[in-house]
Amino acid sequence: MLGREQAIGRRRKDRGLSDLRADFTASLVVFLVALPLCVGVAVASGVPAELGLVTGIVGGLVTGLLPGSSLQVSGPAAGLTVLVFEAVQAYGLPMLGVLVLAAGVLQLAMGALRLGRWFRAISVAVVEGMLAGIGLVLIAGQLYALADMEAPASGLDKLAGLPGLLVSAIGSSTSLTALALGTGTIVVLVLWRRLPAAAQVIPAPLAAVGLATAASVAFALPVAKVEVRGLLESIQPPGLGDFGQLAEAGVIGTVLAFTLIASAESLFSAAAVDRLHDGPRTQYDKELMAQGAGNAVCGLLGALPMTAVIVRSSANVHAGARTKASRVLHGVWLLLFAALLPAALGIIPVAALAGVLVHAGYKLIPANGLLPLWRAHRGEALILVVTAVAIVAVSMFEGVLIGLALAVAKTAWDTSHVRLEVTDEGTGPITARLTGNATFLRLPKILDALEALPKDRPIELHTAGLHHLDHACKTSLENWAARHTTADTEPVKVTSGR
Description:
InterPro entries: SLC26A/SulP_dom, SLC26A/SulP_fam
Strand content: 5-15%
Strand order of the largest sheet: 3-4-5-6
Pfam family, one: Sulfate_transp
Number of domains: 2
Main location: membrane
Mean pLDDT: 85
Subcellular location: Membrane
Largest sheet: 4 strands, mixed
Protein name: MFS superfamily sulfate permease-like transporter
Oligomer: single chain
Structural class: alpha/beta
């Protein structure tokens, strides 16, 4: 008996060591993927580059330790770049911590109330439209950074200014140099996966930024570099006075947008990651609370908001990760880099990071899936396009609300099917039967059909076949029955019996 227990113990120990080796290797891969993305998202968000690393560190050391999704990796995401940039421009960098902290507290509350699973009920068309809109604005903004120029504030102004950007870039040797460097970064990202497997051991974002940085240093290119402030100097915890702005309508809307987008992106990412491995499935409410805890800590440090990121998560799975140790270790490597090698950020060209984000923005746009979606589900395709256009034309929060409203309206329309069957045997009363769901959305169709029935014949209207009859339809049917007869004809009979 003792020998068997010892054998079991040895097997468990061997399995544990095997898991640790696999997680250690995977953590290095995720670190190399996360490093340029953390820095790039921070720079594009208009905050110090070190704050992107802080969010990545918290994503590993805090969210990574908590239960929820064992292989999903969290950090700053391209999907929130536009919203963070707008928030920093509107309220200032010191207010960012308050916004992120409030969003984290909301996520904790929603997880505690077991609302995590309900995010799976959000229309996929709205989420894809949201990401597509973010991608379009992100690409438009980063094209300016690609040429070392400042981007306009609004999404429409960014798009409208692109022709002028091209003219200005052509007339400036500095802009052309930066543009060539950024374009080369994008080319490396696109072509990297076509290289032999041995070369792909190095993650594409790291290779692209590394090659662009090497070219910049080797040829002393006159392009803008990442500004380095130092890790401790960049951390700006919110002051007590900053929390007073939480009563403002614009601030509340921004917090809700942070919460909605970060939660939806994280939980949709969790569902995608679950399809990549055979390990434990995501516990959605716990994962939402883990994201909330991470964002609360990021808020206290004045850092960027975090979400689960599919790029890092898929890299983690494909690198052979087996437990949450891989994502925790990736946070350790980010911390060591930020503490020991912060000056290395100062040689990275901004145009190279812009190239990484242009590529990331393109991947947010479901270009290949739009036409098949239009052929199969035109309503869903319309919601996707309208949501994306609204985000570009108006703002992130309003665009998402418009998309959600359209999705609800479409669902209400789809579920309010109603059918009117009329039986007329030539003599006796005419029988009309309503079946399905009678709502105000279908009221014009119902009334047109009923008004077409002869007024000089007795009519019996049966409503027992209706699964739902809303107040508007009920009132309108009663009014129609009261007036739809001539003086010498029996009144319309409305009955719920068969």
